[in-house]
């Protein structure tokens, strides 16, 4: 079987099972809205400090929603021991992993489709194409990294503890670069670098982590 | 004295020589005064930490490639020692920053990336502790070590890539007087030797730990390591 066929099949399976249960996406949507409510109280938000605060709130909510989403990516497989069954098929572990990461990334994009409009509404900041583009680019890299470590901790004791410890430090580049891009687009002080530069950097990071993950995924899955 | 004790004694003696160079030989900095003497050990331990994490990276790659138990033990030893030297770097840097910058900490690119480095390898040690000992822990840790090493060049080049408060490179830019340079090289040699001895001792501890684990629980561990070799 070709890699892409397998990956798409696995992704379709995950999305279908999410569609049937409708657990993760509604929970994540509630979670990000709650995060905005808490940020409002934590930051004493008003219309003047909004452009400075909103990008930070966006990335905080996104990072923690991502942790929850990717932590769940392998939960069902673990509960029913179905990952082992998938690995027994001739499909390559990297293809299976790519499918899982694709599905988890799409679920996180759905959650972003709630987060970004809610942020624009509640914090009265402009929602430009640049913001959406930066967030989507960051989602790609965050998803491959998050899924890699989610696959790892699924087989480990104290997995809820370990996933953030491993994932958050490696997500920091996306928060740094994506944060600059969003700050610039929302009219805050954007660190001085242009949109083209941050987009290029996010693409570089995506390529770096996709390549590294595709090389190492089989060691994590095929354990 | 066995060779580990001899190595440790030699490392302590060398560090004392380095202390002599730092406190007696090197001249006092005209602007910063005696505080500048932190520089010698601070930079040396940062370089030693880079070296240790390079050992973790190479050990991890060789383990994934050849299933070599020795490479995995070397990676384990490198990670522990690397975290120790990163801690030394951070603490000494903070002690220097308080009188010079007026604050222990600032969110500067190099400080932040070094802190992230510490957190990444602390996470590496957590994986080692929480994963099932043997093949699983070794494989997972190797992957974390490969990803974690990405941060090392970021730390190293952060002072060139971004405008930082942290001083830029002084050694390779030839900005030091020759006496300071000599004191620095002596300290660096002593620190690197100390790191190597610490890794060697830690490696021995890992061997003994593995042997003890095999004795107490022979069946699963022997089966796992043999399955690993057969691959």
Brief rundown of the structure:
The complex is a heterodimer of chains A (about 220) and B (about 230). Chain A is an all-alpha fold.
How is this structure best described in words?
The complex is a heterodimer of chains A (about 220) and B (about 230). Chain A has helices at about 5-20, 25-45, 50-75, 75-80, 80-90, 95-120, 130-155, 160-185, 195-220. Chain A has about 220 residues and is mostly helical. Chain A is globular and about 60 Å long. Chain B is about 80% helix and about 0% strand. At the A-B interface, α7, α8 and α9 of A face α4 and α5 of B.
Percent of residues in helices of chain B: over 70%
Q: Structural class of the helix and strand makeup of chain B?
A: mainly alpha
Order of helices and strands of chain B: HHHHHHHH
The end-to-end span of chain A amounts to 22 Å
Number of helices of chain B: 8
Rg over CA atoms of chain B: 20 Å
Q: Which CATH first-tier class of chain B would you pick?
A: Mainly Alpha
Largest pleated sheet of chain B: none
Features:
heterodimer; A: 223 residues; mainly alpha; B: 231 residues; Four Helix Bundle (Hemerythrin (Met), subunit A); 8 helices; globular; disordered C terminus
Write the topology of this structure.
The complex is a heterodimer of chains A (223) and B (231).
Chain A: H1 3-21, H2 24-43, H3 50-73, H4 75-80, H5 82-88, H6 93-122, H7 129-153, H8 159-185, H9 195-221
Helix pairs in contact in A: 1-6, 2-3, 2-6, 3-6, 3-7, 3-8, 6-7, 6-9, 7-8, 7-9, 8-9
Chain B: H1 3-25, H2 38-66, H3 69-101, H4 109-130, H5 135-148, H6 151-161, H7 178-216, H8 218-230
Helix pairs in contact in B: 1-7, 2-3, 2-5, 2-7, 3-4, 3-7, 4-5, 4-6, 7-8
